[in-house]
Amino acid sequence: MPTLDPTILAYLKRDGLLREGHCAYRSGRHSAALVDRDRLLADPVAASHMGYALAKRFFTDLVSTVAAPSIWGAGLAQWVGYFLDPKAKVVYATPRGAELTVAENLEGLIRGQRVLLVDNLVISGETLGRFAGTIEGLGARVIGLGTLLNSGDPEIAGHPVVGLLNPLYDAFPAEDCPLCAAGSTPTSIGY
């Protein structure tokens, strides 16, 4: 997996968009990083850099549509779609109760297409897994899953997850956490 450019990493840290520490995510996994998902995607410089880095990873996969299961993922998906060549269309989920659907007038951007699923963060993988089922149910071929940081399983719905920050800040099951083994106490994160 490609590593994140050190200048981008420095930018994220300098502006507090990425903080180091011992974090315990809702998924039960621990990591040495916390991404401020709201502020990162509110910063067009940071969001565009991260979108470019994800697009670069999937550049040769012939993506026609980028789909996001959340409003936070939709912001990142816009940048990913913009940096792919040819430019990919972007579709986001429309929640209907507990179900994630795609607006009927956008289904044509999914049916029979090569679709990349993007979300800003993967916490447990449940949302992205459900959305993969929705997208595949519409006749698309899911060619990958991309995110900023994956604190869930490395594979969701049969697809490996590309977490941009994971090569530097992996997410470990609590029992395998090297920070815990070193005596550090984690801070619980609300997501």
Descriptive report:
- This protein has 191 residues and is α/β, with parallel strands linked by helices.
- It has a domain at 33-158: Rossmann fold.
- It contains 6 helices and 14 strands.
- It has helices at residues 6-14, 37-42, 44-57, 71-83, 126-137, 178-181, and strands at residues 18-24, 29-35, 65-68, 89-92, 94-96, 99-101, 114-118, 121-122, 141-147, 149-150, 155-156, 159-163, 172-173, 187-188.
- The strands form 4 sheets. The protein has a 6-stranded mixed sheet, with helices on both faces.
- A hairpin with a 2-residue loop joins strand 11 (155-156) and strand 12 (159-163).
- Helix 3 (44-57) crosses helix 4 (71-83).
- The longest helix has 14 residues, at 44-57.
- The protein starts with 5 loop residues before the first helix and ends with a strand.
- The model has no long low-confidence stretch (mean pLDDT 94).
Please outline what is shown here.
With 191 residues, the protein is of the alpha/beta class.
Topology:
Layout (H helix, E strand, L loop, with lengths): L5 H9 L3 E7 L4 E7 L1 H6 L1 H14 L7 E4 L2 H13 L5 E4 L1 E3 L2 E3 L12 E5 L2 E2 L3 H12 L3 E7 L1 E2 L4 E2 L2 E5 L8 E2 L4 H4 L5 E2 L3
Parallel strand pairs: 1-14, 3-4, 3-7, 7-9, 8-10, 9-12
Antiparallel strand pairs: 1-2, 2-13, 5-6, 11-12
Helix pairs in contact: 3-4
Large-scale geometry: globular
Strand content: 25-35%
Radius of gyration (CA) equals: 16 Å
**Largest sheet composition:** 6 strands, mixed
CATH architecture of the domain at 33-158: 3-Layer(aba) Sandwich
Per the CATH scheme, the topology name of the domain at 33-158 is Rossmann fold
**Estimated structural class:** alpha/beta
- Work out the helicity level: 25-40%
Find the count of extended strands (DSSP E, 2+ residues).
14
Order of helices and strands: HEEHHEHEEEEEHEEEEEHE
Mean pLDDT across all residues, rounded? 94
Q: Give the low-confidence spans.
A: none
Largest sheet: spatial strand order: 4-3-7-9-12-11
Q: Tell me the span between the first and last alpha carbons.
A: 25 Å
Q: What is the CATH C level class of the domain at 33-158, in words? A: Alpha Beta
Task: Determine the number of helices (DSSP H or I, runs of at least 4 residues).
Answer: 6
